[in-house]
Design a protein that fits this description.
single chain, 76 residues, mainly beta, five-stranded antiparallel beta sheet, 0% helix
Amino acid sequence: MEKNELMQIAYDRDADVLYLSVGEPRRAISREIGDDILLRLDPDTGSIIGVTILNLSTRPNLKALPVMIDLQAVPA
């Protein structure tokens, strides 16, 4: 990720999904790394381009946000 890339955050209330994207949202492959947490990867480079959190409003404790994700521990 380059330093000049901004992170975009979007919440879809109808689908109850939070999207975090590095740079402009784009095509990705997803890998589930936790309970309803998907890591979005560039299909060509394998670099991390975002995170998707499903069923955000059903999380046991929204006060526990932000969600901490150890990206070093994610298998390649």
